[in-house]
Amino acid sequence: MSSQMMWALIGGCAVVTELIKAAGPVALGGRELPQWAAGVIGLMAAALLAALVVTEALSEGDRIRVGADTAGVAAAGLVAWRGGSVLLIVGVAVVVTAGLRALT
Asked: Which of 15, 21, 35, 72 could form an SS bridge with 93, CB 3.0 to 4.6 Å?
């Protein structure tokens, strides 16, 4: 692929991205979102983060794998569920993962 073709592709992607971003405000025209839509949008960040964490914790290449990092994420999830601080959550994940990797 030539340099000009690559820059044209990057420019095209930038234009399409901006058009997609502008579609919402243009379609709404200054109106407020319905309450149900605002609730769904509020939960999208948490759902995306959960999907990324699960994908990283349970995959190795193109295969599903349960290992030390999976146990570390699970332990950190329990600490988060019980209301632990972010520092404690990360510390538990690191200690559990490192401990299990040292044992195997």
From this structure: 72
